[in-house]
Design a protein that fits this description.
Oligomer: single chain
Number of domains: 2
Shape: globular
Strand order of the largest sheet: 5-4-8-1-10-11-2-12
CATH architecture of the largest domain: 3-Layer(aba) Sandwich
CATH class of the largest domain: Alpha Beta
Structural class: alpha/beta
């Protein structure tokens, strides 16, 4: 039985870990050299609770029920399905001792023992810290409270919550090694989630002029849904200096996580555990970090939010340094990890086992999807990635279509150009295929006249549809 460690960051965009990034991520890049990297990995959802629930269940949000964050809507609007099996429950049944330290934010009970987890401290339990502010930037909008978006504090990184979480995890691992018990450790940091607040010792690793205004900050958003332009107004009073400072703090928070990864890897090597331990590093979703004139995450479906770091260090460091280019998704983590661990699981998931792609046994042209349900305001979106293309089905405005190979910054929405009509329909059909395959009946049964605004409808992939509502729509 192989030991397993999940390293989960919150809101870390993939761009932060790329070789040409200005972000200092030396330890994670070293881990990548021993790991399989998935450059085309995307979150199943752009906010915390839905993405995290997908991570541990292998199910898309419409199937695990947590379609919004636990703290933003009443339970009837986002209810976790406790009948599903999760990664820790399957591992616990197979003899693993399991810990979870850090941000949970998956469901409302916070009774992690019900998930087969032996030891835990979540965001509700971790000791609160009194920090000494050095500087900060706040955003004000009329009628809304003034909120800090970034800041620097005087205490060093050993005082940070991230340092505490990794310390707790290493103590658990050390004890399980001495007990001779197989273990699974979840270490889940809040960083780099907003507000991007970081110790001065990390912040000072960067120079004042390291960061400026992102290249696509000035996207006028004229060819994109008007809602995005309204969101841009939140940040419109920021100066160029403010923008650079916010980006610096965000990347400093990423570096804070990287420092903990380095500590953990050194510890595992000292304990003789590194080579044969399965390590997964990922994030629930990303952050706009100034792209398209936006920060944070949510309805704007750009790659900065959906494209996530995702690496798997296999036992024995097999295939270290490999880039597996299959379109991967948060939902794929569960079936892949359980396969590598040699744990039998016959339950249903919406994800796919990535090992055949790693081993070169599967050459299918895969695609992946994401779902968004609007976070309080119910903006329904579905996102499809296929080859170099990305299609966004918006129920509240015009759709979006991007060629990520030719336009990686997503500056040009191609949806209204006639020469892209067929690719638009092809990706829309991919959406309907996944809707049908995963039982997303709310979309699949969208036959009513007022719901018919996709480029092609669900019957384009199957003539079958439910007649559960036929009593309300009389035939003639």
């Amino acid at each position: 039985m192989k030991n397993i460690i999940f390293l989960i960051s919150d809101q870390m965009q993939r761009k932060a870990v790329l070789e040409d990034s200005r972000c200092r991520m030396d330890n994670l890049r070293k881990l990548c050299s021993d790991s399989v990297d998935f450059p085309n990995a995307h979150a199943s959802n752009p906010i915390c609770s839905p993405a995290r629930a997908s991570m541990i269940t292998g199910m898309l949000p419409h199937n695990h029920g947590m379609v919004d964050c636990t703290h933003t809507v009443p339970s009837y609007r986002a209810e976790y399905d406790y009948s599903l099996e999760s990664i820790p429950q399957v591992l616990e049944r197979n003899g693993y001792d399991i810990c979870y330290y850090g941000k949970w934010h998956i469901e409302r009970t916070y009774k992690l023992e019900d998930f087969g987890i032996d030891e835990y401290e979540t965001e509700k339990d971790i000791p609160k810290r009194t920090l000494t502010p050095v500087k900060k930037i706040a955003v004000s909008d009329e009628g809304y409270r003034t909120s800090t978006i970034c800041g620097v504090y005087a205490e060093d990184e050993t005082f940070s919550e991230e340092h505490y979480i990794y310390d707790k995890g290493m103590d658990f691992i050390r004890r399980k090694k001495h007990e001779g018990k197989p273990f699974c450790a979840f270490l889940s940091t809040y960083a780099p989630h907003d507000p991007y607040v970081v110790p001065k010792s990390i912040y000072d690793l960067y120079r004042e002029d390291d960061f400026g205004v992102p290249g696509n900050w000035n996207d006028g958003l004229d060819d994109k849904p008007g809602l995005y332009r309204r969101l841009h107004e939140v940040w419109s009073d920021l100066s160029d200096t403010d923008i650079g400072e916010i980006v610096r703090c965000y990347y400093s928070c990423c570096t804070l996580v990287d420092v903990q990864v380095g500590r953990l890897v050194s510890f595992l090597k000292e304990e003789g555990l590194y080579d044969d331990t399965l390590i997964v590093f990922t994030s629930d979703h990303g952050d706009m970090c100034g792209a398209h004139g936006l920060f944070c995450k949510g309805v704007a479906p750009f790659e900065e939010v959906y494209s996530i770091p995702f690496v798997i260090k296999l036992p024995g460091n097999v295939d270290g340094g490999m880039r597996c280019t299959v379109h991967a998704n948060t939902c794929d983590i569960m079936p892949t990890v359980l396969d590598v661990a040699g744990v039998d699981f016959s339950g249903k998931t919406d994800g796919k086992n990535l090992m055949p792609f790693i081993m070169g046994r599967d050459g299918r042209e895969e695609y992946t999807v994401a779902e968004f349900f609007g976070q309080r305001f119910s903006y329904t979106q579905r996102v499809v990635w296929y080859k170099e293309w990305k299609y966004v089905f918006n129920t509240f405005a015009e759709d979006e279509l991007y060629d990520l190979e030719q336009d990686p910054d997503e500056m040009c929405n191609l949806i209204s150009l006639s020469e892209y009509s067929e690719i638009k329909k092809t990706l829309c059909r991919k959406m309907w295929e996944r809707v049908r395959a995963t039982g997303d009946w709310s979309l699949q049964d969208s036959q009513y006249f007022m719901h018919r605004f996709a480029p092609v409808g669900p019957l384009s992939v199957s003539a079958e549809f439910s007649d559960r509502f036929s009593m309300f729509n009389k035939s003639f």
